[in-house]
């Protein structure tokens, strides 16, 4: 498993439509593992294959509910309600924007064993599913931001913590 480079806004790969996965291969299985590692390293809740330069319809999501998801060839088959809230993206670091998304979605996909699954999500999970599936069609959340984007402080990783200053109370 490895940490992959996350492509950032301006990279053409983020605007391309991804191809469906026809069969699971060792290479794709490794990609999925790497995507989870990369997402966790970057403190994200979701990552789509094009964000690591692979034009395949694969996303990984973990909203810290104890149920990390791998969605292959996903499609939203039902949505309802509305939520408007801040959204960010690992491919647009340090930025956020207010985006309207469904509050509830039902998504049909294949899992990493190529078995059909149905995932139902509300609130953050619904937002993450919609956001990551947009990546598969070359859509970035900034395209949907209601009033444009604004800067935010990047999430500080634990490794950046400097214990040298702990005793300076």
Summary tags:
single chain, 169 residues, alpha+beta, five-stranded antiparallel β-sheet, three-stranded antiparallel β-sheet, 8 strands, 17% helix, globular, disordered C terminus
Helices, strands, pairings?
Layout: H1 26-41, E1 46-48, E2 58-61, E3 69-80, E4 83-87, E5 95-101, E6 104-110, E7 116-122, H2 124-135, E8 150-151
General description of the model:
This protein is an alpha+beta fold and 169 residues long. The protein has helices at 26-41, 124-135, and strands spanning 46-48, 58-61, 69-80, 83-87, 95-101, 104-110, 116-122, 150-151. The chain is globular and about 40 Å long. The N and C termini lie far apart (41 Å).
Summary, kept brief:
The chain is an alpha+beta fold. The chain contains 2 helices and 8 strands; from the N terminus they run αβββββββαβ. 17% of the residues lie in helices and 28% in strands.
Order of helices and strands: HEEEEEEEHE
Task: Tell me, briefly, the overall form.
Answer: globular
Q: What is the makeup of the main sheet? A: 5 strands, antiparallel
Measured between the Cα atoms of the first and last residue, the distance is 41 Å
The structure class reads alpha+beta
Strand content: 25-35%
Fraction of residues in helix: 10-25%
Major sheet: arrangement of strands: 1-2-3-6-7
Number of strands: 8
Identify low-pLDDT runs. 159-169
Radius of gyration: 17 Å
Number of helices: 2
Mean pLDDT: 92
